Amino acid sequence: MARRFDFLKDKAEEAPAPAKDSPRGSSAEGKSEQYGRRADPKYAQINANIPADLRRELRIRLVSEEREQQEVIEALIRGYLEGRFKV
Asked: What does each C-alpha distance from 84 to 40, 67, 81 come to in angstroms?
């Protein structure tokens, strides 16, 4: 007797296998190779959620000053840890 969702099983068997190589290239583990500070073991990544308008203002200022976001964040964190900024 046919079951209600047997057609899904048939479609899965017909589906083509995913490509082995991604368009960006891949390493032995299937991940792209890292570069720059991301590959440097002395650096670690952090994430933060901030208001979109604040991010937009920051990016505009960074472009006008020809600076990178990580420079500003690193300076702010160092200042906080040294007691120059209070939260």
From this structure: 28, 21, 8
46 closest CA partner among 81, 73, 80 = 73
Pairwise CA distance, residues 44 & 41, whole Å? 7
Q: What is the pLDDT of residues 25-36, one digit of tens each?
A: 555 555 678 778
8-26 exposure pattern, b = at least 16 Cβ within 10 A, e = fewer: eeeeeeeeeeeeeeeeeee
Is residue 58 exposed (0-12), middle (13-18) or buried (19+ Cβ within 10 Å)?
middle
Look at 34 and 64; give whichever has higher pLDDT: 64
pTM, 2 dp: 0.55
